[in-house]
Amino acid sequence: MKKQEQIIVDLLKQGDEKAYKYLYDEHYVLLCKMANEFVRDVFMAENIVGDTLFHVWEIRETLEINISIRSYLVRAVRNRCINYLNIKREQWEEGFTTIEENGDSIMHPNLFSDAYPLASLLEKELEEEIRQAINRLPDECRAVFIKSRFEEKTYECIARELGISVNTVKYHMKMALSRLNADLSKYLLLLLIAFRQIN
Q: Which long-range contacts (CB under 8 A, 24 or more apart) does 3-6 make?
């Protein structure tokens, strides 16, 4: 590993956010392109890369990188892509088939009739979880996310309003999406199963 990269790793271990932003500035675009080659889904590729970079931040105190930072991140993203594809393949093979107990299906089609509005309940629960997940974001990160997603403002406009750089806006958005994806993934999967049953 080059001396400059070792300095970056050392700064990450110390919790230096500038070092973390450096990962985005230097590697994010390339990693997204690579991930998209695996999963063939731009949104999922961005989520995988965002999750990978956020995980690096989470484990920063015990971070050990003996190769170049880019090689380390490429390997980490590739492994997450493979895991995602394996899970997707298993779900496809199972066809979201229901588990049966005593000959009765746990997820019987009637469960999603008007008498059993599980999908509607899941939607309401998800709305509340989204609200709470957004409230758990750091202040500036939450402000950027709300202005972008709810007020539909451009990154340039947000940067002017908050007095930060466009790159910092991008950093906060990626951080927000990574955290929200981690917090809400189980609810999204439940909704996916529910709506597949309905349709």
A: 5/65, 5/68, 5/69
Question: Which residue, 91, 72, 95, 83, is CA-closest to 39?
Answer: 83
Residue ranges of domains in the chain = 3-93, 109-198
Per-residue pLDDT of 116-173, as tens digits, reads 344 455 556 667 777 888 888 888 999 998 998 888 888 899 999 999 888 888 888 8
What residues contact residue 106 under an 8 Å CB cut-off, 6+ apart?
98, 99, 100
How far is the C-alpha of 165 from the C-alpha of 171, rounded, in Å? Answer: 10
**109-198 CATH fold:** Arc Repressor Mutant, subunit A (1.10.10)
CATH among 1.20.210.10, 1.10.1740.10, 1.20.120.450, 3.40.50.300 for 3-93: 1.10.1740.10
